[in-house]
């Protein structure tokens, strides 16, 4: 019997965790290795935030953000080798990584109307990926809210110091991202994690059935291997019932 492409056979991997734990890099690599699609939901919240800033919506005015939240047309390309994001047809992959967007994104992502809109896009991307075998989706609330029936849920952690060192190393190569010391980067990411964990709607949280992986002492390659192994184990459980 032909089973490929059936939604119930698709592999859905949810990867959540705070900033700099390695969600994007590991998710892309896992999706590439397993031949799955890839979705960076943080990029969508960043794109929404960029649109608000560009259109002079006060990001601290939740009512104004809510009112504008259905205006931007966001499109995410889910090829892990070339993930893309456009806003109103314009490539937003560069502008969404600036410090201005990073500083404003937690306020925008706390607005329930923004979340409702983006969660719908995320579930649609997941449903569309079934024909390709499935998807790796990364963010803050994928296992708890967006895809509670995911095949595998992983919650990545790492010490704040390790995360800050990784992030500030990475930002050195991004034009327009601005330069910050490791200490300033650490303070900014701890502040953002607190805002993301403390919001009312769908906060950053580990799902009860997520497997926690502390990446502080692991190389990127080790984290990728660990997650591929966890997916394999889940698929074996499926076939053995
Ligand atoms: N296990 C790891 N060890 C060392 N560096 C890592 C590890 N995982 C990710 N990185 C690096 O840390 C930076 C942030 O990773 P990223 O995947 O963007 O994290 P997140 O999506 O959780 O914010 C990137 O430069 C990435 O290459
Ligand atoms: N599923 C998600 C993903 C991101 N976000 C928000 O989007 C922001 C940016 O996410 P990101 O994944 O690009 O953050 P980094 O850790 O990569 O800098 C987060 O700080 C959250 O405020 C969210 O609320 N829910």
TrEMBL record:
GO process terms (BP): pyrimidine nucleotide metabolic process
Assigned keywords, A-Z: ATP-binding, Cytoplasm, Kinase, Nucleotide-binding, Transferase
Location of this chain's protein in the cell: Cytoplasm
Enzyme Commission designation: 2.7.4.25
Domain of life the protein comes from: Bacteria
Chain sites annotated for binding ATP: 17-25
Class of the enzyme per the UniProt entry, highest EC level: transferase
Domain Cytidylate kinase positions: 13-232
Matches recorded under InterPro entries: Cytidylate_kin, Cytidylate_kinase_dom, P-loop_NTPase
Broad class of where this protein is predominantly found: cytoplasm
GO MF annotation list: ATP binding; dCMP kinase activity
Pfam name, any one: Cytidylate_kin
Annotated catalysed reactions: dCMP + ATP = dCDP + ADP; CMP + ATP = CDP + ADP
Gene Ontology terms: cellular component: cytoplasm
UniProt cross-references to HAMAP family, sorted A to Z: Cytidyl_kinase_type1
Similarity remark: Belongs to the cytidylate kinase family. Type 1 subfamily.
NCBIfam families registered for this protein in UniProt: cmk (TIGR00017)
Protein name: Cytidylate kinase
Gene: cmk
